Amino acid sequence: MAHWLVKSEPDAFSWDQQVAHGIEPWTGVRNHMAKNNLKAMRRGDRAFFYHSNIGKEIVGVVEVAREAYPDPTAETGDWVCVDMKALRPMKRPVTLAEIKADPAFADFALVRLSRLSVAPVADEYWARICQIGGWR
Fold first, then answer.
1. pTM listed for this prediction
2. What range defines the domain where residue 60 resides?
């Protein structure tokens, strides 16, 4: 199982909305690197749900329920989306400030590629963030 981080601005689509919808298409990605990351996701992979812009924190964990398919919100191009299923919230949100303050996260995509909306998460980062946030 691979691990990922997906970002959403909570005023556009929040963790609470993800939970309320249960399974929701992750649409609107318009960056080629992020699109390739969506294409690499497999059913059962897990992702941190990150509130960007407002909050700037990892608030929950979602699971890929359906692999990449054409994004119905795209007017042109070969954009894709995946379906995400809400699993559970973090016991305690993990903030971007906390992550940036820890030198062990220096190579983490959230720090290095801060504008990328869909990014892989190495196993060691996944384990550490789960530990900090109390997610089991």
1. 0.96
2. 3-133
